[in-house]
């Protein structure tokens, strides 16, 4: 039995368990202001806000900022590779694909759901900012939380996708800081 078929059976059971919660959270998009806010957050979470943060780091922390920015960017690249491999290996359909009652409020960047790449990057960068530039970490925290919420509200992910993305991304950011912070600071 292949790993993919084991994962598929696991996700089918998990999808059924998470469907009611997803549907309940997804109902929030019936409010135009909620839908507009989370669509904007999702678009910014595609990378735009994080690119701006990375580019701003050298100016906000001139002594070590360039090295920190490089470390954050390289760790972000590792996140991208990790989530792409996991998504194509584990193959979990998005909630709006599996359950027509869940509305997709913005086009997904790719087909599969597990883990949430947006949340993985947000949690990774958040962990790194709290460790290396705590003031910046506090400034970006509301955005990071909004990115995580947006994934379920917009019908793109199950809560477990978001939790896994946050855990993996947070760990990747923390490990990166532990291994390479002395090079950046």
Structure description:
- The chain is mostly helical and 185 residues long.
- It has a single domain, classed as Vanadium-containing Chloroperoxidase, domain 2.
- The chain has seven helices and no strands.
- The radius of gyration is 17 Å and the shape is globular.
- It starts with a helix and ends with a helix.
- The model has no long low-confidence stretch (mean pLDDT 90).
Q: If classified by CATH, what would the architecture be?
A: Orthogonal Bundle
- Given as residue ranges, the uncertain stretches (5+ residues, pLDDT < 50) are none
Number of discrete domains: 1
**Beta-strand content bin:** under 5%
How are the secondary structure elements laid out?
Layout: H1 3-26, H2 32-60, H3 65-90, H4 95-98, H5 117-132, H6 134-153, H7 159-184
Helix pairs in contact: 2-3, 2-5, 2-6, 3-5, 3-7, 5-6, 5-7, 6-7
Short summary:
The protein is mainly alpha-helical and 185 residues long. The chain contains 7 helices and no strands.
Give structural attributes:
185 residues, single chain, Vanadium-containing Chloroperoxidase, domain 2
């Amino acid at each position: 039995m292949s790993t993919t078929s084991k994962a598929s059976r696991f996700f089918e059971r998990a999808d059924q368990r998470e469907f009611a919660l997803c549907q309940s959270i997804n109902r929030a998009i019936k409010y135009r202001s909620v839908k507009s806010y989370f669509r904007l957050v999702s678009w910014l979470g595609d990378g735009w806000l994080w690119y701006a943060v990375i580019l701003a780091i050298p100016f906000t922390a001139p002594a070590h900022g360039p090295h920190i920015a490089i470390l954050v960017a390289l760790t972000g690249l590792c996140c991208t590779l990790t989530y792409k491999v996991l998504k194509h290996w584990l193959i979990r359909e998005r909630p709006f694909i599996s359950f027509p009652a869940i509305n997709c409020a913005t086009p997904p960047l790719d087909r599969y759901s597990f883990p949430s790449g947006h949340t993985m990057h947000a949690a990774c960068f958040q962990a790194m900012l709290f460790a290396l530039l705590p003031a910046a970490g506090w400034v970006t925290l509301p955005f990071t939380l909004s990115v995580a919420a947006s994934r379920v509200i917009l019908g793109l992910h199950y809560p477990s996708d978001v939790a896994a993305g946050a855990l993996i991304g947070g760990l990747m950011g923390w490990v990166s800081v532990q291994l390479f912070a002395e090079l950046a600071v």
